[in-house]
Amino acid sequence: MSPRSITYALAIIRQAFNYARNFDLYCGDNPVSKVKKPSQDNRRSRFLSHEEADLLLEKLSKISPITHDISLLSLHCGLRAGEIFNLAWKDIDFDNGIILIKDTKSGKNRNAIMTKDVRTMLRKRECCTKSALVFSSRTGERITEVSRTFDRVTDALGFNNGVTDSRHKVVFHTLRHTYASWLVMSGVDLYTVQRLMGHSTVAMTERYSHLAPDHLKKAVNTFEDKIKQHRDDNIFVTK
C-alpha cells in the first residue's frame, strides 16, 4: 500500500481503539501509538497554465456542460468537489457576488467570490433548473463524484502523458490548486489566499510561497525606495 493509504489505515485502527477505551471495552495503550507512520510529501505540485485551462474548459463545454460548469467553479473560486455538490441556490448571493460555502473540510463556513464568468454560468443554470441544489443528478439528487468525463478529457488533451507520479497528474483537485497558484502568482498575499482557500492554518498556504518571487522582489524594491526617499529628504533638509 502507498504511504498515504497506510496512514489512513492506522488512523482508522487508532480511532477504533480510542472508541473501545472510552467505553471501557478495552484497557491499555493504543497499539497504533507504537507504530511509526510512513512519511511522504504527497502534496500536488502540478497546476494548469492559463492556456491549458482554456483548452480544458473549451473541450468540456462541448462534451459535458455540467462538468464544464463544475470545473469552472473550482478553477475560479477554489472550491472542492464536495463543496460544489453541497451548494444550494440559497447559498448564492448574486447581489454581492458571494457564494456561501458550508460544512467545509475545516469545519468553518467561508465565502467564495464570484468571477464574472462564474456569475454568468450560475445565472444560466438558475434559469434552467428546478432543483434546490445548484448541481444535481438527472433525478434531482445530490451528485457524489466528479464525472469520469473530466479524466477522459484531460487524457485526450495529453495533460498526463508520460506522468507516473500521481502528485504531478492533472485531476479535478488540480483546479483548486491552480486557483491558489494563480492568486499567489498575481501578487495576492498568503493570508488572503488562506482565507479564500479555507485553509485552517497559514502553513497549508505557505506551500505556494515559492510561486511569488516577483511579488517578494517588488516588496523589497518598495522597501528600498522608501529608504532612498528618506535619505533624499534628509539631504534636502540639510542643504
Write the layout of secondary structure elements.
Layout lengths: L2 H20 L27 H14 L1 H13 L3 H5 L6 E2 L4 E4 L8 E4 L2 H12 L21 H8 L16 H13 L4 H8 L4 H4 L7 H26 L1
Antiparallel strand pairs: 1-2, 2-3
Structure overview:
- This protein has 239 residues and is mainly α.
- The protein has two domains: 3-34; 50-211, Orthogonal Bundle (hpI Integrase, Chain A).
- The chain has helices at residues 3-22, 50-63, 65-77, 81-85, 116-127, 149-156, 173-185, 190-197, 202-205, 213-238, and strands at 92-93, 98-101, 110-113.
- Strands 1-2-3 form a three-stranded antiparallel sheet.
- Strand 1 (92-93) and strand 2 (98-101) form a beta hairpin.
- The mean pLDDT is 88.
Summarize the structure.
The protein has 239 residues and is mostly helical.
Task: Write a concise keyword list for the protein shown above.
239 residues; mainly alpha; hpI Integrase, Chain A; 2 domains; 3-stranded antiparallel beta sheet; 10 helices; 3 strands; 4% strand
Q: Could you give the order of strands across the largest sheet?
A: 1-2-3
Structural class by SSE content: mainly alpha
The coarse silhouette is: globular
Q: Provide the low-confidence segments as ranges.
A: none
Q: How far is it from the N-terminal to the C-terminal residue, by CA?
A: 75 Å
CATH class of the largest domain: Mainly Alpha
Q: Evaluate the radius of gyration.
A: 23 Å
> Quick check: average pLDDT?
88
* Strand portion: under 5%
Kindly report the CATH topology of the largest domain. Answer: hpI Integrase, Chain A
Sketch the major β-sheet.
3 strands, antiparallel
Domain count, please report it: 2
Helix content: 40-55%
Gross CATH architecture of the largest domain = Orthogonal Bundle
Number of helices: 10
Number of strands: 3
Give the SSE order as H and E letters.
HHHHEEEHHHHHH
